[in-house]
């Protein structure tokens, strides 16, 4: 994919999600027409396989990982995902999403799985896309020395956000910012250095009752502009975030 034709990149979404089966063509076309590039993230064996197929079919980018919510799967299933990622390393920008989720139970087992996939990012020399819901500090303590981290859908503290960025990692701001004061305040207090944006589609829609889609990543940029307009023009913010994303994922061109 020639990224030069884009102005924006949705740095994390799930376009392989089955809920897009009915209108995936349309959703991807709408993104491309809106100059939005797509990085889709497989998070299960089936999801990883579909993400790679779509990457080739639509010329989008992919990251592959294993969602912490799948903590109770059998060892064999987890290993299959691990081997699938390893054997497709040339096809992917990063390993993830991987991480911990406070709401999925069995944190000890989640931690073992997380470490296994972190080792893989390290071995493959790729960034890690981190899901850290409610356990942002813990994820950082486990992963800080392993690879460049991109905290997807960041909702942790301002202090940790600054620490992550100071250590060369990335914070991804999702469409949640369109309606969450907490996230708006967070961004207001951060420099744009190492901030990227995402929709996490089909989740986290900024519009009540609608399914989220990559094109909505423009709404995240517009909201950031609203918060930062004393310092930057809309074009400057768009360009800084686009360049941050390319640097994070080492996208050439
Ligand atoms: Zn996700």
Automatic annotation (TrEMBL):
Organism: Methanococcus vannielii (strain ATCC 35089 / DSM 1224 / JCM 13029 / OCM 148 / SB)
Transmembrane segments: none
Keywords of this entry: Hydrolase, Metal-binding
Protein name from the UniProt record: Hydrolase, TatD family
Residues that, per the record, bind a divalent metal cation 1: 12, 14, 97, 200
One Pfam assignment: TatD_DNase
Binding site for a divalent metal cation 2: 131, 152
Entry keyword Lipid biosynthesis: no
Xref: InterPro entries: Metal_Hydrolase (IPR032466), TatD-like (IPR001130), TatD/YcfH-like (IPR015991)
Hydrolase found in the keyword field: yes
Alphabetized Gene3D superfamilies for the sequence: Metal-dependent hydrolases
GO molecular function: DNA nuclease activity; hydrolase activity, acting on ester bonds; metal ion binding
């Amino acid at each position: 994919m020639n990224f030069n034709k884009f102005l924006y990149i949705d740095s994390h979404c799930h376009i392989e999600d089955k809920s897009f089966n009915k209108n995936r063509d349309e959703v991807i076309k709408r993104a491309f027409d809106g100059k939005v590039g797509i990085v889709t993230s497989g998070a299960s064996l089936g999801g990883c396989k579909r993400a790679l197929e779509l990457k080739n079919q639509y010329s989008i980018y992919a990251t592959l990982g294993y969602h912490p919510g799948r903590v109770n799967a059998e060892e064999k299933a987890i290993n299959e995902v691990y081997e699938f990622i390893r054997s497709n390393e040339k096809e992917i920008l990063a390993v993830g999403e991987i991480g911990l989720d406070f709401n999925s139970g069995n944190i000890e087992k989640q931690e073992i799985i997380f470490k296994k996939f972190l080792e893989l990012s390290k071995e493959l020399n790729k960034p890690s896309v981190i899901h850290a819901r409610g356990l942002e500090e813990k994820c950082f303590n486990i992963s800080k020395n392993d690879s460049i981290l991109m905290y997807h859908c960041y909702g942790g503290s301002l202090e940790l956000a600054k620490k992550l960025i100071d250590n060369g990692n990335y914070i991804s701001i999702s469409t949640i910012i369109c309606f969450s004061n907490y996230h708006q305040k967070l961004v207001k207090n951060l420099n744009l250095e190492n901030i990227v944006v995402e929709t996490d589609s089909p989740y986290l829609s900024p519009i009540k009752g609608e399914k989220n889609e990559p094109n909505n990543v423009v709404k995240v940029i517009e909201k950031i502009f609203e918060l930062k307009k004393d310092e930057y023009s809309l074009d400057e913010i768009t360009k800084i975030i686009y360049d941050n994303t390319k640097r994070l994922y080492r996208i050439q061109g």
